[in-house]
Amino acid sequence: MKISARNQLKGTIIEIHKGATTAHVSIALPGGAVVMASITNEAVDELGLGMGMAATAIVKASDVMVGVD
Question: What's the predicted TM-score (pTM) here?
Answer without folding.
Answer: 0.84
